[in-house]
Structures are given as C-alpha cells and as structure tokens.
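Ticket #4471: structure export looks truncated?
Reporter: QA, pipeline team
Priority: medium

Steps to reproduce: submit the single chain below to the structure queue and open the exported record.
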Amino acid sequence: MQLEDYFEFLDPDAIRIKGHRIGIDNVIQYYLQGYSPEEIIDAYMLRLAKWREQRYQESLANPSPLMQRLRALKAQREQELLNS
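Actual output as written to the record:
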C-alpha cells in the first residue's frame, strides 16, 4: 500500500483524499473529536450541501450577465409563441 494511492500531496501542508477536495486535516480533526467515519462523511456532505445551496441562492440573487441574457432570450421566445 502506497500513501500516494489514497492521498494527493499538493504541498507539505495540503494533503487531500485522492479524487476529492477533502483535506486530511479535516478528517483528522473530526476523528480526534470522537466522530465515527459515518459521522465525518455526514458532516462533510451537510457542509457541501449548505455551500451548494448558498452558491445557488447567490446566483439567483445576482445572476451573471450571461444568465441575464439567456433569461431575456427565453422570455422573448415565450412572448413570440404567445403572440403567434
């Protein structure tokens, strides 16, 4: 077993689980606090879901210029269909 099979060594202070953005420091911190592996995964998934929802809400409140243009085109097409 090679550590490189399971971890990505970005630099001496940044080690992640291979294929994920989870830092080994996060896993160790939870483990040392007494969390089980299942609880660690659940905590990570909850944080990720909250982050995604926050980003989604931000994008709704402040759409990019591209999204504004797409919404305008969609509204224009819908209006054209109603008028025809």
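Status: closed, not a bug. The export was complete when the record was re-opened. Leaving a note from the reviewer for reference: Residues 37-61 form the longest helix (25 residues).
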